[in-house]
Fold Pyrroline-5-carboxylate reductase.
Amino acid sequence: MKTKRVTILGSGNIGLSLAKGLVKAGIYQPDNITLTRRNVKALQSYANDGYNITNDNAAAVANSDIVVIAVLPQQLNGLLDNIKLSLKASEHLIISVVSGVSCADICSHLGFDVQIVRAMPNTAIAIGHSMTCIASGNASNENVTLVKSLFDTVGVSIVINEELMTSATALCACGIAFFLRSIRAASQGGTEIGFHAHDALKMAAQTAKGAANLLLQLASHPEQEIDKVTSPKGCTIAGLNEMEHNGFSSALIKGIKTSAEKAGALYKSE
Ligand SMILES: NC(=O)C1=CN([C@@H]2O[C@H](COP(=O)(O)OP(=O)(O)OC[C@H]3O[C@@H](n4cnc5c(N)ncnc54)[C@H](OP(=O)(O)O)[C@@H]3O)[C@@H](O)[C@H]2O)C=CC1
Ligand SMILES: O=C(O)[C@@H]1CCC=N1
């Protein structure tokens, strides 16, 4: 089967992470991927690596099969106006990673129907470890399966109802920042109790990876694994309870709720 040509409209943080992930997974060569942004000079190093780069979105769409939209919500309508005439409902499949914008919103702005699959990856896609949520309002099952298989090569993906996409944004896409901040905070604690910053960060990151893998590989519950660490009258339960008295779980839960509310409002507030 002929390799599908992919264009990424809006090659910023997540667009470039996706491109790198697809190439790292070996399912695409850089020359099958076109990257666009207005300041195309910023993509020069990618051209040196073999990617096609351009600031001509319409031409890029005309030369592609799969069109990934990866601009900010407030940049979306301008981009859609830009590519409208090049989009062919019978030829193109759109993958939108834009937060808070439904498939219906996109078709409504375009003024015609085109198959759209929404995907919510996270930046770990660059190294093949994304948690990606996928949803579609109007794409064929075949195309949803195609998109899922694409994202399965760069991490783990699940198909969810479109109404849960803003929640997925908060938990999984923003979630990368939340867990990174937790690791950073742990490393700062480590430095205060005696480790050089570089060592403390490595120790905290590897400990976090071990904790996540305990859940993923043993399919166990966090509290089951926590119970194995908290010796009676021990130091773990003392530290954990101190964190809870300071609102540790509550802060995470409230932050995730706030992010979900904001993710749902980004496009509508434009
Ligand atoms: N960052 C993340 O972890 C995730 C982000 N998302 C979503 O992905 C989208 C992009 O986010 P992110 O990558 O962080 O944002 P960035 O600002 O890093 O990337 C957006 C890119 O779009 C380009 N752009 C803007 N307008 C146009 C245009 N008309 N034509 C072509 N390119 C354009 C910008 O470059 P220039 O100004 O040069 O045109 C920029 O490089 C957002 O909707 C976000 O919600 C989803 C999942 C995770
Ligand atoms: O912060 C944001 O709005 C984007 C969406 C998810 C991750 N980054």
The domain at 6-162 is CATH 3.40.50.720 (Rossmann fold).
